[in-house]
Design goal:
The complex is a heterodimer of chains A (278) and B (329). Chain A has helices at 13-21, 31-48, 52-76, 79-110, 114-119, 127-153, 161-189, 193-209, 222-230, 232-244, 250-277. Chain A is mainly α. In chain B, strand 4 and strand 5 (70-71) form a beta hairpin. Classes of the chains: A mainly alpha (278), B alpha/beta (329). Bound molecules: adenosine-5'-triphosphate and magnesium ion (MG). Residues 47-48, 88, 164 of chain B line the site of magnesium ion.
């Protein structure tokens, strides 16, 4: 009881001081390097919680099984004929659904203090957004690949072969890149991740079903057919089908890419503006 | 101009509203470089909003501020190169490990892959988080998370650091660690703007303090000035025998000042105590044969500071703090 001791909890002050004094400021990173670093952050999260990929893989597979075996015979006469028709469309659907999660995860991120730190860093301002979409594009590829693989397991054999399937996947992922900025805007405007999810699916669900993903529009009543024909999701599904079939439909491909570029041109600046002011 | 560059923060008339709420209503701050400056205020006083404006996170809607000589609006990018923020919400990524957090920041600040990794390891060691480095931050204890948060702020040592309530919710041991880190930072030349609800924290760390309430600075000075303006603290005593409380109260009233009987049957406290008078009083109690269980000299709480400065109580109570504490048995 007589010896004097230092209060507990004394950090190793010498080491702390050494660590503090031992830095020099490196040059600011370039925009691409900063964005790629944020992409790496997204990858790390998938690595720590791989279950989060279930969302984006299980639902599309369920749709695939359900539509093929439940409605396939009724719609196209046989399940294998229907699989031929619908698989390229299901590819579109599963990847587009995944884009909604980009908005949801952005919204989740915003509720965390770490965003404040990112915003006080001397980096290219849209880097966190561009980077997380780069990370998300890996999910898009996974979602698309799962659908194609399950389709092949069920007997789907695209005439375009591997090249056709890969290019269709590439096109759909490129389109998703443009579309995901729309959900980023939702992610920045709405209050909770759930609200983003609901609003996102409220938009994407009807658009997907009112497209040629599941049914040939020729069988639809006039006004509906007209809508389905101009729906960009139909155009994308047509383009995907044509690539899978090994007979690329140039017009549909160009329109799909143009729509993606248009969405990005409008919503990317809007996203960065909102991100800055939030 | 020279006088201005001596100041790490020079804000005048800074204001910010959220809808109808005037969160910050004209704050003037002159923070000298190379020291810790405390901003003391209750919940909702506008501390965090002030920090967010100074750290370029939100633009002020009135007034202006220069940080290290650069305007926070016009030269925001330059300001960001000089400051770092340890926010009130932990500003680290909960879904990554501690090491990944530090490497991520190193990369974002422009370090090479190898340099970022080396720096992360150095900081993890210095801040005593090496053994948890590979765990996800969401599983960290509060103290570890805070240390990681501060480490993340000095991946590249900033000229000015914002610390927003760095010890709220920490146990005394973790709190002491954070205080030591803050002192080490200042010793190495960083200026710190510290927001806190605790007078004791400001007293321990800050060289100057601004008290803010409802978005305005209501008092400014050194910790000693501030405490002098409030008056003295109080001596808290717990007796072994509750039956003798009235007797002890008489003695304390004579040696210290007005006595308040505490809710516990054997406890009482005398207001108007400084360390000298408290020591005398305790010695007299002892001499008069009162067995004591516990006594402490309590600093004026933030509540009392507020009451003294504004004439109204702080909206939310903050715990009073013990300066000198002894256990007798
Ligand atoms: N983004 C916001 N939107 C609306 N109101 C806000 C926002 N941020 C702060 N406020 C309001 O501004 C006022 C000041 O808040 P601020 O967070 O700056 O206080 P504080 O002093 O940091 O409090 P605390 O000790 O609780 O952290 C509060 O009334 C708060 O509700
Ligand atoms: Mg606050």
């Amino acid at each position: 009881m007589t010896a004097t001791t230092t209060a507990p909890g004394s950090a190793d002050t010498a080491a702390v001081r050494r660590a503090i004094s031992s830095t020099s400021r490196p040059p600011r990173p370039g925009p691409l390097s900063a964005a790629l670093t944020f992409g790496w952050r997204g990858m790390l999260k998938v690595k720590h919680v791989p279950e989060q990929l279930l969302d984006v893989t299980v639902t599309p597979v369920m749709f695939l099984l359900m539509f093929t075996y439940l409605f396939g015979g009724a719609i196209a006469g046989s399940t294998s004929a229907y699989l031929d028709y619908t698989l390229p469309g299901l590819l579109v659907m599963s990847v587009l659904f995944t884009t909604v999660y980009s908005g949801v995860s952005l919204n989740t991120d915003l509720t965390k203090g770490v965003v404040d730190r990112f915003r006080t860093l001397p980096i290219w301002r849209p880097a966190p957004l561009v980077g997380s979409l780069l990370g998300d594009s890996v999910r898009y590829v996974i979602a698309g690949t799962v659908i194609i693989v399950v389709g092949v397991a069920l007997g789907y054999r695209p005439d375009g072969g591997v090249v056709g399937a890969v290019s269709a996947l590439g096109l759909v992922v490129a389109f998703s890149f443009g579309l995901s900025w729309v959900f980023c805007v939702l992610g920045l405007l709405l209050r909770s991740p759930n609200a983003v999810m609901n609003a996102g699916f409220m938009a994407i669900f009807p658009l997907t079903f009112l497209s040629n993903v599941f049914v040939d529009p020729a069988t639809l009543p006039g006004p509906l057919e007209a809508f389905v024909d101009v729906n960009p999701i139909s155009v994308l599904a047509t383009a995907s089908r044509s690539l899978m079939a090994g007979a690329p439909d140039g017009e549909a491909i160009v329109i799909s890419l143009a729509v993606a570029a248009g969405l990005a041109a409008v919503f990317l600046p809007l996203t960065t503006r909102l991100y800055r002011s939030r | 101009m020279t006088a201005q560059t001596e100041l790490a923060i020079d804000a005048s008339g800074l204001g910010k509203s959220f809808g109808e709420t005037r969160a910050v209503a004209g704050v003037d701050l002159a923070v000298p470089a190379g020291a810790i400056y405390g901003v003391l205020g209750p919940n909702g006083a506008g501390k965090t909003t002030t920090i967010r404006m100074l750290a370029t996170l939100i633009p002020p809607d009135a007034g202006s501020a220069r940080v290290l000589g650069h305007d926070v609006v016009a030269e925001a990018a330059t300001v960001r190169e000089l400051v770092s923020l340890t926010g009130q919400l932990a500003s680290v990524d909960e879904e990554l490990t501690g090491r990944e957090n530090l490497r991520l920041l190193g990369r974002l600040l422009g370090c090479s892959r190898a340099a970022a990794k080396a720096r992360a390891d150095e900081l993890l060691d210095a801040f005593d988080i090496a053994e948890a480095a590979g765990r996800l931050v969401k599983h960290y204890s509060g103290g570890m998370r805070r240390r990681l948060d501060i480490a993340a702020s000095i991946v590249v040592t900033p000229r000015l650091m914002f610390l927003d309530e760095p010890t709220t919710g920490l146990d005394p041991r973790s709190r002491n660690q954070v205080w030591e880190i803050a002192r080490a930072l200042v010793a190495e030349g960083t200026t710190i703007l510290l927001c806190t609800q605790y007078l004791e924290e400001a007293d321990q760390l800050a060289d100057g303090i601004a008290v803010i309430d409802r978005g305005r600075v209501i008092a400014e000075g050194t910790p000693a000035d501030l405490k002098a303006s409030v008056g003295t603290g109080s001596l808290y005593v717990r007796l072994l025998d509750p039956a003798r409380r009235a007797e002890a109260a008489q003695l304390l009233e004579r040696t210290v000042g007005p006595v308040v009987l505490e809710p516990e049957p054997a406890a009482l406290s005398a207001t108007g105590a400084d360390a000298e008078r408290a020591a005398t009083a305790v010695a007299e109690l002892h001499r008069a044969g009162f067995p004591l269980v516990h006594f402490s000299l309590q600093q004026p709480s933030l509540d009392e500071v507020f009451l003294a400065l504004t004439g109204h109580a702080a909206e939310e109570t903050s715990p009073s703090t013990d300066d000198l504490q002894e256990h007798l048995s």
